[in-house]
């Protein structure tokens, strides 16, 4: 079942169950997917859909950070709930141990030896872990191994 089909099914269920939060999040994601489809000019692949979903999740995490900094717990709570709904549609996240092993393997694969090779490593690594790991964590692990 594609992401869009799953969103449509869940949207119907949210309407039936009068789950306003889930319904609004699904509608926002569907709008983002449709906007992306118009932008690229063709049907979105699962990879494209995952990119859009990651973007939505990142925006909410950034907002959450800002709301927590501003001590706005009312807004932070709403964003946490939205993040929980979005995470339902994300693929299984890699554990830090698994991610660490992938980083080590990729560094060996591209022959990186210093922080100057960071771009090469990240370029080879990110497609492998797309949607399965947080980019900040990946970046931190690569930096640790290259220093």
UniProtKB/TrEMBL annotation:
The GO terms this record gives for MF are:
carbon-nitrogen ligase activity, with glutamine as amido-N-donor
Protein name per its UniProtKB record: GatB/YqeY domain-containing protein
* The organism's place on the tree of life at top rank: Bacteria
Q: Short name of one Pfam family for this protein? A: YqeY
Q: Which organism is it from?
A: Alkalihalobacillus alcalophilus ATCC 27647 = CGMCC 1.3604
